[in-house]
Specification:
Elements: H1 4-12, H2 16-27, H3 36-63, H4 85-92, H5 95-98, E1 102-106, H6 113-126, E2 131-135, H7 136-149, H8 152-160, E3 164-168, H9 177-190, E4 195-200, H10 214-225, E5 229-232, H11 268-278
Parallel strand pairs: 1-4, 1-5, 2-3, 3-4
Helix pairs in contact: 2-3, 3-11, 7-8, 7-9, 8-9, 9-10
Length: 280
């Protein structure tokens, strides 16, 4: 059987997964014992896998996560800092994304809020959702510039289409009235339509005073906090230098996977595949 024309046609059709799988079948004699339907099924499975991997790589790149390698599997669930294993595992399934809920992560500086937010976003990406990371101060600056140059409607529309929007370090300082109004436009577009992750150093009870005019603050909190999943982290900063008293398994804020004995939330193979896609 002449397979070169078949390979050329598969390449022309963009079916590179099937091309790779067909070449493997030609090179390995054990495939000869399989029925036609079984070999065809393997070709189709490879194509689906390759497409899923390419889509994941594209979505990871587009998400611009602050910590692109953050993984739920690499979270240290044993450290007493407010992480509930059951809650994190449920969030890793990304059903909250399909339910268009918010996840609010608060805690002092350095306790891993950004890492956790990026890990949750990546878990959603693995399940076929899209995501985008925005640092709150830069997001508000970009909204102000977009209003001036006429891009605001297009910018808001593009963010509104993202399945998971990560707003990191909200309310580091009190928002001006215009900033609060811009933030309201963002959360209004997403309320009960898309999922949002917000991190802040302030306890949620103190957000109202930092979100500008009381009326706007009420509207923002009503949309963000309604039905939201809440995670309150505590403890010392993970960025401080480690000492012998800290123990060898203390995690670091941007490399929680460095500790070899952290508890795994999912199969390590999925983490490896995701990191390989992120590196492309």
């Amino acid at each position: 059987m002449l397979t070169t024309p078949t390979l050329d046609k598969l390449v022309a059709l963009g079916l590179m997964g099937m091309v790779i799988a067909l070449k493997e079948q030609q090179e390995r004699s054990e495939y000869g014992a399989l029925a036609f339907e079984e070999r065809l099924g393997l070709l189709v499975d490879r194509e689906v896998t390759e497409r899923d991997n390419r889509r994941l790589a594209r979505n990871l790149k587009a998400a611009k996560l602050r910590i692109s390698g953050a993984c739920i599997e690499d979270l240290d669930m044993r450290s007493p800092r407010g992480l509930d294993r059951g809650q994190i595992l449920r969030l890793a399934e990304a059903r909250w994304v399909e339910a268009h809920q918010s996840v609010l992560v608060v805690g002092p500086t350095g306790v891993g809020k950004t890492y956790l937010a990026c890990a949750l976003a990546q878990a959603a990406l693995r399940r076929g959702h899209t995501a985008l990371y925005l640092r709150a101060t830069r997001m508000l600056d970009e909204l102000a510039v977009a209003r001036v140059d006429g891009r605001l409607p297009r910018l808001l529309a593009s963010w509104a289409r993202v399945d998971v929007l990560v707003i990191d370090d909200l309310a580091l300082r009190p928002l001006a009235s215009e900033q609060a109004a811009h933030l309201l436009e963002v959360v209004e577009d997403r309320a009960q339509r898309r999922a949002t992750i917000v991190t802040s150093q302030l306890p949620i009870a103190e957000w109202h005073a930092s979100l500008g005019d009381a009326t706007i603050a009420d509207a923002i909190l009503d949309r963000l906090a309604h039905g939201a999943q809440r995670i309150e982290l505590r403890g010392d900063s993970l960025r401080r230098p480690r000492t012998a008293a800290d123990g060898a398994d203390r995690e670091r804020p941007q490399a929680e996977n460095d500790a070899p004995d952290v508890e795994r939330a999912e199969r390590p193979g999925k983490r490896a595949a995701t990191k390989a896609a992120a590196a492309r």
